[in-house]
Amino acid sequence: MVFVIAEIGVNWDGNFDLLKSMMSKAKECKCDAVKFQAFNENIVKDHPERSRLMSCSVSKDNIETINELAKSVGIEWFCTPMYPEVVAILDPYVSRFKIREFDGRPLLEGKTTELLERVLKTGKEIIVSSKRSPKGTKYFNHNQIKWLYVVPKYPCSLSDLDFRNMKEFNGFSNHCPEIIAPIVATIVGAEIIEIHITSDKTKNFVDNNVSFDFRDLKELIHYIDSSRKIVIK
């Protein structure tokens, strides 16, 4: 089975009605979980959409509502913490954490940061994105960590992708607008697929340039399921 993560991220614009609809459609498409992001003012202070982004960040003010919506829909949710203090806020609600490529770089050097230490101390599963293979590093076979291959470019093209070392990762985090990218990742062994989703490609949601809509998502999951029947020698 492939564990499919629908990255809602910042594409819900702080609108809880839209959020519930996106959660429901992700479940209808057979996604296993939806994912969010948690950042603070300092992280997005120079972004032109700063106020809009902050309305989408998981915080102590909205986490209970997000959790209740996920419960009502019946889908798991988890989050990418981007600053240390938010880990304690997230911990009672989530069963795993996601670490973005930038924050995961120290692990490739056998090091940690305050953020990484706090997440590790929860004892929960940690999904880490990386462009570089973690093979040979201290954290390659760590019992808490799953590694996703990613090209940290928004968006990336098919020519940016290199799946030759896919067996050294547990899965793939997609930033490519071509649906074939996560399908190929699955065929070559990805057990976790993370894709950004949007409710409407025609609107100006912040991450729309790397996001699939729900028609795409349904088609993608159909092909992911079908690809598992292919035997690769």
Descriptive report:
The protein has 233 residues and is α/β, with parallel strands linked by helices. It has a single domain, classed as Alpha-Beta Barrel (TIM Barrel). Helices cover 33% and strands 19% of the residues. It has nine helices and nine strands. It has helices at 16-28, 41-44, 50-54, 63-73, 86-90, 101-108, 114-121, 180-187, 214-227, and strands at 3-7, 33-38, 76-81, 96-99, 125-130, 145-149, 171-174, 192-197, 211-212. Strands 1, 2, 3, 4, 5, 6, 7, 8 and 9 form a nine-stranded parallel β-sheet that branches. Strand 1 (3-7), helix 1 (16-28) and strand 2 form a beta-alpha-beta unit. Helix 1 packs parallel to helix 4 and helix 8 (180-187) runs parallel beside helix 9. The longest helix is centred in the C-terminal third of the chain and has 14 residues, at 214-227. The protein is globular.
The average pLDDT value, as a whole number, equals: 96
Instruction: Please summarize the sheet with the most strands.
Output: 9 strands, parallel
Protein structure class: alpha/beta
The share of residues in extended strands comes to 15-25%
From the alpha carbons, calculate the radius of gyration and give it in angstroms: 17 Å
Basic shape:
globular
Q: Helical element count?
A: 9
Secondary structure layout plus pairing:
Layout: E1 3-7, H1 16-28, E2 33-38, H2 41-44, H3 50-54, H4 63-73, E3 76-81, H5 86-90, E4 96-99, H6 101-108, H7 114-121, E5 125-130, E6 145-149, E7 171-174, H8 180-187, E8 192-197, E9 211-212, H9 214-227
Parallel strand pairs: 1-2, 1-8, 2-3, 4-5, 5-6, 6-7, 7-8, 8-9
Helix pairs in contact: 1-4, 8-9
